[in-house]
Every structure is written in structure tokens, then in C-alpha cells.
Amino acid sequence: MPKRPEPDRLVGESPAFRLALDAVSKVAPLNKPVLVVGERGTGKELVAARLHYLSSRWEGPFLKLNCAAISDTLIESELFGHEAGSFTGASRTHQGRFERAEGGTLFLDELANTSGLVQEKLLRVIEYGEFERVGGRRTQRADVRVVAATNEDLPALAAKGGFRLDLLDRLAFDVVTLPPLRERPEDIPLLAEYFATNMAKELGREYFPGFAADAAQALQTHHWPGNLRELKNVVERAVYRAEPGEAVEEITLDPFRSPFRPAAEQAPGARPGLALPLDLKAAVQKLEIDVINKALAAAKYNQRRAAAQLGLTYHSLRGYLKKYEAEVRGGD
Ligand SMILES: Nc1ncnc2c1ncn2[C@@H]1O[C@H](COP(=O)(O)OP(=O)(O)OP(=O)(O)O)[C@@H](O)[C@H]1O
Ligand SMILES: [Mg+2]
């Protein structure tokens, strides 16, 4: 008999995360749809995989479709398949995810982005296990468990008419909500260590020497709008930039931060990276740094002239320069 594989490790011991994990273990064995909700980067995909591997379907397929990545017509044929000749370019019969996931689990990522027609077909296949291929007449049967994920507020979307309420009711047999990283600060050191150790291994280093106190502090105090994915990237970058065998001292939260960043990206109104949720303090600091750098460059690094351009006294500009020592090119 094949051995049940260990699901990917889910690191975290905070009460908020434990609560979510308990909900996962409890609902996993049931043959019911599950909705996984959480901000971007909170681990929704890992949780979906865990739901599959802890269920009685673990030997069956675990397939996924990201509904935000493709157009509505394509979603329909990717999910339900199509018959040859059903539309231009459909030269052969195509099996959809529901056919290929038979006996297993289908993970529908970013489900909020589906059209009414797709939602209607989904409701039917979830409720009655029935669907037709695009362009097909024969009704097919599907035995597939659906796990869906979203980072949107589906009840609010449904109330506005942007999502079918009956599908939402059906999917929400149980809802697992993953906490954002800022609500589980106790987990930051555990996760940082975990990501760092994996990265050190990947780089062929014998061990991970740890974070220096300042670096650990920087990780602990950041707001993490991008959650675990952001933490993972920041930690991996820090490990790879550190000398092998030496503790990680330097944490770069924003790899784009540079006095030479192209000005076009900083045009007001078209500022990238202002999507919510964001870290207001960090965003304001970044704006201050960008504007000061710009004024300094325009004044050819004459600080008195730059201060005049910014409506600041020379002394208050000096105060800013001191505060942002690492990020601004001071000039004379
Ligand atoms: N508890 C955890 N322990 C270890 N790694 C984790 C954990 N949760 C998430 N990760 C890692 O963090 C990254 C983001 O996780 P995942 O892709 O599951 O998030 P997501 O919620 O699906 O994000 P998105 O909304 O952007 O699709 C992945 O690399 C994943 O392996
Ligand atoms: Mg995801």
C-alpha cells in the first residue's frame, strides 16, 4: 500500500495560526467544499494542499486552477473541458480539470474573479456532481472535492451582486480564515529561521548562522503587507547576500529602494506599491526619501538649495538627512 505523503510543513505556533490549523484538520476528512480566505501570501495554497493530503482522497489527484490568470471562456473550458469543434481552435476533445481530478481534489484559486456562467456551472457540479463539456450534450459525472481560495470579501461582493450567493453558501460549508502575519508576530522568528535554513541549504551552505540582533529586530517590527511570501523573499535575499558562515546583519525590505530609482516610477498619482493593504509609515518614509533625493539631485547636492526647494530650513533638512542616512545621498 502506498504511504501517505507528509503534507508540506506549515510553520507556526501562535494561537491565531493554531486555530486555523485546527479548523483544517477538522474539516479535511469531510467530503465537503471548503473556502480558504486570507490576505495575499498567507498560505492559502499550502492549506489547500494540506486539506487534500489529510483527506481520504489523498491518493487521488490534486489539481489547481488560478481563476484570475485566464479569461472567462478559457476558465470554462479548463474546468469542464470542451468537445472538438466547439470553438475556433478547439481541434480536439479536451478533458477539463473536473474530469482529470476525478477521485481527488480541485483547488480553485482566486475564485472571486469568475463570471456568472462559470459560477452557475460550478454550483451545479458541486451540488449534483454534474456538468457538460463546452459544446457537449452528454452530462458527465464528477466526484471531485472543491477547495476554493480568495483574498476578497466574498459576502460583501455577493451583496453587491458580484458573486452568486447560492454558490457562496454552498462553498462556505466551512471557511478557514488564515491570519495575516502581523496578527501572529510570535511566528516571525520561527518562520524567518525556517526560510533561512532552507535557503542556506539551497545555496549549499553547511548551516545557517542566525540573524544578528538588529536584523531580527527589523524583521520583528516590519508590518509585512505581503505576509509570508514577503517574509520569505526578504529572508532569502538576506541569506544569499550575507557572507557564508556569518550571521545575517542586513535586511533589505524594499529591493527597489535606491537613490537611482527611475523617476518615472515615482510620478505622483501613478505611484506603484500603493495598493492596500500597505504599511502607511513605511510608505510615507519612502515618499520622504524619494522627494529628498530628488531635491538633492536637482540642487546638485547643495543642501541649502535643496532645503529651499522643499520649504525646509537648512537645519530641518539636516535632520531628515540624519534620519535617512542610509537611503539618501547627502551631498556637501
Ligand atoms: N505556515 C507556513 N509555513 C511555512 N511556509 C509557509 C507557510 N505559509 C505559507 N508559506 C510559504 O509562503 C509562501 C506563500 O504561501 P501561499 O502561496 O500558500 O500563499 P497564498 O495565500 O496562496 O498567496 P496568494 O494570495 O498570493 O496566492 C509560499 O512560499 C509558502 O510555501
Ligand atoms: Mg495562492
Notes on the protein architecture:
The chain is an alpha/beta fold. The chain folds into three domains: 165 residues, P-loop containing nucleotide triphosphate hydrolases (Rossmann fold, 3-Layer(aba) Sandwich), CATH 3.40.50; 60 residues, Orthogonal Bundle (Helicase, Ruva Protein, domain 3), CATH 1.10.8.60; 45 residues. 42% of the residues lie in helices and 8% in strands. It contains 13 helices and seven strands. The strands form two sheets. Strands 2-3-6-1-7 form a five-stranded parallel beta sheet, sandwiched between helices. A two-stranded antiparallel ribbon has the order 4-5. A hairpin with an 8-residue loop joins strand 4 and strand 5. It binds adenosine-5'-triphosphate (ATP) and magnesium ion. The site of magnesium ion has 3 residues, from helix 2.
List keywords for this structure.
7 strands, two-stranded antiparallel ribbon, five-stranded parallel sheet, binds adenosine-5'-triphosphate, alpha/beta, 3 domains, Helicase, Ruva Protein, domain 3, binds magnesium ion, 332 residues, Rossmann fold
Task: Please state the CA-atom Rg, rounded to the nearest Å.
Answer: 25 Å
**Top-tier CATH class of the largest domain:** Alpha Beta
Oligomer: single chain
SS-based structural class?
alpha/beta
Shape: elongated
The portion of residues forming beta strands comes to: 5-15%
Largest sheet, if any?
Answer: 5 strands, parallel
**CATH architectural type of the largest domain:** 3-Layer(aba) Sandwich
Q: What name does the CATH topology of the largest domain carry?
A: Rossmann fold
Name the helicity range: 40-55%
The bound ligands are: adenosine-5'-triphosphate, magnesium ion
Number of helices: 13
Mean pLDDT: 90
